Amino acid sequence: MQQTKDFSDIHLKDLARVGGKNASLGEMFSKLSSKGIKVPDGFAVTSDAYWHFLKHNKLREKLSENLAQLDLKTFKNLAGIGSKVRQLVLDATIPPALRDEIIAAYKRLEKRAGSSVSLAVRSSATAEDLPHASFAGQQESYLNVQGEENLIAACQRCYASLFTDRAIKYRVDNGFEHMQVALSIGIQIMVRSDKACAGVMFTLDPDTGFDKVALVSGAWGLGENVVQGSVNTDEFLVYKPFIGKVKQAIISRTLGSKALTMVYANKKMSQIQKPEDAIINLDTSKAQQQRFILSDDEVIQLAKWAVIIQQHYKRHMDIEWAKDGDTQQIFIVQARPETVHSQKKNISQFKEYQIRQKGKLICQGIGLGNRITSGTARLLASPKDIDKLEIGEILVTGRTDPDWDPILKKAAGIVTDQGGRTSHAAIVAREVGAVAIVGTGNATSVIEDGQEVTVSTAEGDTGFVYEGKGTWDEQEIDTSKIELPNTQIMLILADPDKAFHYSLFPNNGVGLMRMEFIINNAIRVHPMALHHFDQLQDAEVKKEIETLTHHYPDKKEYFIHRLAEATAKIAAAFYPKDVIVRMSDFKSNEYASLLGGSHFEPHEQNPMIGFRGASRYSHALYQDAFALECAAMKLVREDMGFANIKLMIPFVRTVKEAIKVIAVMQDNGLVRGENGLELYMMVEIPSNALEAEEFAQHFDGFSIGSNDLTQLTLGADRDSELLSDIFSPFEPAVMQLIKMAIEKAKKTGVKIGLCGQAPSDYPEYSQFLVDCGIDSISFNPDALIKGIANINQAESKKRAVRT
User: Fold this and answer.
1) Global confidence as pTM
2) Are 4-190 and 194-342 equal in CATH topology?
3) Residues with active-site annotation
4) Handedness of CA 168, 173, 178, 181 (dihedral sign)
5) Where are the beta strands (DSSP E) in 501-629?
6) Over the stretch 126-160, which tens digit does the pLDDT of each residue have?
C-alpha cells in the first residue's frame, strides 16, 4: 500500500487519508497554481502509515488503556496521561518499509526542486481544519529540517504530538474519539520567511464577519510569532470588490511594533526536544519596526489570492502566508475554513452593548468581540495553572498558544500583553465566545491578581480594561424583524472602527460622518503643523509629531492618508449607500488642543460662533489645511473608488461664502458633478433656512443640524446648564425654521434630512418631520431602533389621515 502521496496528486477528497491541512495544500497546489497562487511543493505521509505505525508497534491497546483513565470532569491527570502516551509513541520505531518510502519521496522532492532543500514537517490530523473545529495548532510542526535522519525523527515526533495535552482535551471537547483520529504528516519545502516575513489573512473581517474585506496581517521572520501572538503585527484591510478595478484597494494600514523577529536556531534534530528548540526570537531593529513588512503591491497580491481561494472553496477561509527572503516570492502555506462567522446560524440577531459607568482605565489593546463583561482578574503565567482559574473569571497573561486551549473555555474574558487580531488568543476567543483584548503591552504588570475589572470591547477596535464593576446596557437586536420606513434612515458615525459592525444595522447609509473624530483620534496633529512642519519652533512638539509620522517623509501625506483610510473604512462598510462626510467642524479652541495647534489658532472669546466651518476653508489661517482635507477626500473617491462619498460643508453663513468655498474645493480637484460628486450643506443658522432657495442653487442637499439651529435661533448656548430649560427642539421659532427649510428644499428639488436625537426621543417630533415631508433622518446607532419605530408610526398615522 502506498503510504506517501505527492501534493500534485492530493485533492480535497483525500482528506481521510492525508488530513485537512495536507488535503488543502494539495488541492491548492494541484488546482490553483494555474491561477498564479504559489504553494511550496511537498508530499504527505498518509493516515494509512500512522495506522501501520501503531500496528507495527502494538500501540493501539496501550494508548486506549491510558487514555481511558483520563478524568473527564476536572482533567487533573491530563498532564500525566499525556506525557505517558507521548513517550509510548516516541519509544516505538518507524517500520522499515515506511521509512524507505518517506526517504524515497524526499529524494524525489529534491530532484523536482533541483537542489537540496530544508523542510517544514507539519502534522495534519484527519479531523483537522473542518468548518466546525479549527484544530489550529493542536499538533506540532518542525521547521528547517534537513537530512534523512532528521526527517524521520521529525515524523515520529509529529505522531507523538497527536497526544499533546491540548490535542487530547480538544478532542474530548469536540466529541472526537481518540483512536478514530489519525495523523498524516505534511513534508514541504521550507519558505525562508526567517529572512523576510510571514503572517495570516482572513477572507472577511474576523471580528464582525463583514465579508467585503480581506484582512492581511504579519510580522518579520517566521510566522509562528504571528500565530502565537508574540508580536503586535502590521495589518492591512483590502476592499475585495475593488481589487484590480481601482488604483488603491487597500483601505486601512496599521503599523505594528513587531518587536521580535523569529529565525532558525540552526540546531540538529537530536538537539531539539520540542519545536520551540529549533527557533529563536531576536529583537527587531528600530528601523524594521517602523517599516511595513509588505509593499502595497504584495498586499494586493495576497488579497487577490484570498479571493481566489475563497471562491474555490466556496467559503470564508483562514490562510497562512510566507515570503521567501532569498527569492522575494510569496507563498501560501496553509488554508483552513474560517470557524466563527461561517458557523453562525442567524446573522440578523445580535446584542448591542453600551457602556454607562466605568472605573479608571487600567490598560487598553486590540478589542475583540463587541461585548462587555466584568469579573475577577486572574493572572496566570502558564497553562499549568489551570486550577487557579474559576469559570467566569478574566484570564490575564502574557500571551497564549494552543497549550492554553483547555483553560480558555473557562474564561469570561481574556487579556494579553502580546498578540494581534489574528493571533491564537484572538482566534480561540472568538471560537469560545469570550471577550478578549490582546496586545495591551502591559496588562500583566498593571492588573492585580484578584482585582475586580470590567473588560469592554464595545467601543471600537480598541478594547479597554477598567477598574471595578462597570454598568452597561445590552440591547437584543433582530434586524430581520425591522422594516425600514419610506423616510430614509441614516446613521450618524464618527468612529471608523465601528463601521463594519454598524453596517449590519438596518439603514440607508450614513447621513453624517464627523471628520473631527478622525482628526482628533487617528491623526492627533493640527494639519497646519504638518503642512508647515519644517517651520515649527517648538522642539518638543516637533519631536512628538515626528514620532507619530516617522514613516511619512512628507508630513502632509500622513494627514491625507490617515484621513483617507479612516473615511474609506466607513465608505466600504456601507458601499454603495451614500456616506455624507462633513468637512472639519472644529472650533478654534478645539483645533488649538491638537498637537501643534496652539501655534496656528486665534484666541476667541466665543468659539461656538467664531472661526469655524466654511469661514475657515478659504482663510489664510486654514486654507493650506483645508487643501489636505480635500486631497484626502479626492483620494478616497478617485484612487480608492468610493464615489458613494458625498461632501458636506458646515456653518455656511452666507450664499457668498458658499460660492467661495465651492470655488476653493474646485481648485483642489473636488468639482461638483464630476464622478458623481454631490455637495451638501448643513442648515444650522437661521440664514440657511431663510435663504434656502438661494443656497439650493449651489448644493445637492441639505442636512438640518438641529442643535446649532436651536442655539442660534434662541440665542442660547447649547452647552449652558443655566439655559437648559430654554433649549428645546419644540420651540415654535425653531420648528418654523425647520418647516421652512424643508418646504424650500422640496420646492427647489434639493434633498433634505435632519441629524439629531429628538426624532428618537420624541414620537411627536418624528411626526412633525414626517408631516413636513423630510427625506431622511440620521440617528446615532444607540438611538436607531427607537427612531425607526417612531418614523414607522408617524408614516402610518400620516397615511391614515390621508385616507
Assistant:
1) 0.86
2) no
3) 424, 755
4) negative
5) 509-514, 578-582
6) 764 444 444 455 678 888 898 999 999 999 999 99
